[in-house]
Amino acid sequence: MPTAKRQKKPHRRETIIEAASALFARNGYDGTSMRDIAAESGILAGSLYYYFASKEEMFAAVHEQAINRLCTGTIQAIKPAADPWTRLQQASEGYLTTMLSSATQSSLIITEFPLRRSGKLRAKLVTDRRRFEAIFSEIVDALPLAPDVDRSYWRLALLGMLAWTHVWYDNKGDSPNQVAQQLVDLLKERTATP
Amino acid sequence: MPTAKRQKKPHRRETIIEAASALFARNGYDGTSMRDIAAESGILAGSLYYYFASKEEMFAAVHEQAINRLCTGTIQAIKPAADPWTRLQQASEGYLTTMLSSATQSSLIITEFPLRRSGKLRAKLVTDRRRFEAIFSEIVDALPLAPDVDRSYWRLALLGMLAWTHVWYDNKGDSPNQVAQQLVDLLKERTATP
DNA sequence: TGATCTTTCAAACATTCGTAAGAATTCATG
DNA sequence: CATGAATTCTTACGAATGTTTGAAAGATCA
User: Fold this and answer.
1) Which segments of chain B are extended strands (E)?
2) Can you give the residue ranges of every domain in chain B?
3) Which residues does B90 contact at the CB level (< 8 Å), separation at least 6?
4) Which tens digits make up the pLDDT trace of B117-136?
5) Which nucleotides of D are covered by protein (CB under 7 A)?
6) CATH superfamily of domain region B54-188
């Protein structure tokens, strides 16, 4: 009967999501087959459908988790700061660290745009993305910018700079934190209503 | 014998590239089948292989043309300017106009990253991209920036801001020129060695 | 016209893909 | 152990993919 369900095997579904994340991030959605994911999960392709109704639904779960990690990675980095500029700096560092550290797969939210998809999936991906961007909206709104600065453009410029790092970032160069420092500094001059 | 070859039918191959550009830009590389391209070209799938040895080689040709358009679109916009900042402003406008005007397909150089590909194709895509980025390298190098500014980061920040527009740009809002103006202005403050 | 080269077609190929259906297995619990 | 539910395997289907091949059609020019 309806007793407690989740206790012993939180394993499989998360294992699958983990494997799928890595593969989607490396090879893209179309470049990853259900058989690939199954093999990486130590399972057979058909068995995936016990946990996910379709490949799209699975990707939705993967995407949601990637966004969640990015959100928490970003938010956690802000912790003990009151100064708006410091908050921005730390958030950017958290973002880039989560995104660029090769161990993670959050980069798939950059390469797998919702743009081309359609229907319910697209709507979900857009919603996820909004949830992340809201973090930066709040931070940017709190910045003491000059009154003639358009905060929407300011935010989009920053997010663009940060997102684009995954195209050129090289592990052998500066650390994610250093990159974030450099990039934020470039926008910092247009500062407090002086 | 080896007489002049190219005179009457420069049509087909370019028609195919045009059709493929549009489809690749809209649906991505994997989302576009050779049959799709053939149908859009008014031809049968097999006939494509008279002009291109493989899908990858065809994409290479498409990518090269997209880069070429972006390059000329960017360079042409610079024409009558001597002031470095004006040059940058105009180049950015040319870039965004070429990229964002819905009639064009240059946006595929943003969505179809070389990152995931491999081998000869990847090398070619990277080379193409470098060719475009060189335009901005030159312009940025000519800017009278403060001596403590890292021009590499500055350039990458700008290119990131510009490239990212294709994620959020909406035809109903500001024009590509206005967007370029806004974005460049955000970086402009760190300006001439004062 | 006939010969030769270019271009296109028609049809198929071998794979791979997402997914379905049902049997087989594992597992917790009475 | 016996029962029923949860999980996995096996097998396969139908569709779509990139590509090949050899013949047909079109063009070019002696």
Assistant:
1) none
2) 54-188
3) B77, B78, B79, B81
4) 888 999 999 999 999 999 99
5) 6-12, 16-22, 27-29
6) Tetracycline Repressor, domain 2 (1.10.357.10)
